[in-house]
Design goal:
220 residues, mainly alpha, 9 helices
């Protein structure tokens, strides 16, 4: 059930993005094309031994997380995105971050299967579940006008700091601990577990960037 959940949660993440862009067919078309190319790239990458090399520099951040983040930055800063950013309710990208509660529960379930290290769960250095839970409260408060530009900005910055700590918890566990020396670490760079850094993490990053673009464009 755990492996299947990675696929289902990734589909949910993609569905959220499609919902966010539901009024612009051009963005949806580009997103779907980009996703197709991205998954072909991931499949090819997973078939090689490149990601199975756990020597420094870390391959997952360099070949998966950073490229995905750069592509999303290009998308959110494109001229095509301006109208969508302007017309999207401020609370929406925040509320969508609540999917991270499911992500954290899945990470914990994967840890119980001895695939992920304890350090990368909410029993270790991963506090990202707090972001997912707070997203609901903050999103509702924004919708009711109780939180405005500065509050949204501060919440995003705090949440991104927590996300950075989560990323560190994985990197440190795989590269600087006894867990990284075990054979089970190889499963992290295979499907479906590879969907965590290649789809779920970039989705969270994108929603933060989208929300920050909204508040820095003086849309409140």
């Amino acid at each position: 059930m755990v492996p299947v959940s990675f696929y289902l949660l990734s589909l949910l993440a993609i569905a959220m993005l499609l919902f966010l862009f539901r009024r612009d067919r051009k963005i949806i078309s580009r997103l779907l094309t980009g996703l197709l190319i991205w998954f072909v790239y991931l499949i090819i990458l997973a078939q090689t031994d490149v990601l199975k090399n756990f020597e420094l520099p870390p391959r997952i951040p360099l070949l998966v997380v950073i490229p995905a983040t750069v592509l999303l930055l290009i998308l959110v800063n494109s001229q095509l995105m301006k109208q969508t950013i302007r017309n999207t309710p401020l609370f929406l990208p925040i509320v969508l971050q609540s999917f991270r509660v499911l992500v954290e529960l899945l990470i914990y379930a994967t840890y119980q299967k001895s695939v992920f290290p304890k350090r990368a769960t909410f029993e270790g250095l991963n506090f990202d579940i707090l972001v997912g839970l707070s997203a609901i409260v903050v999103g509702v408060a924004v919708a009711k006008g109780l939180i405005r530009r500065r509050g949204i900005l501060l919440w995003n910055i705090a949440a991104m700091c927590i996300l950075a700590l989560t990323v560190y918890s994985f990197i440190s566990a795989y590269y600087w601990s006894d867990f990284g020396a075990s054979a089970v670490r190889l499963r992290f760079v295979e499907f479906p577990y590879l969907l965590l850094p290649s789809v779920l993490l970039p989705t969270a990053i994108f929603l933060h960037i989208f929300s920050l673009k909204q508040v820095t464009r003086n849309t409140v």
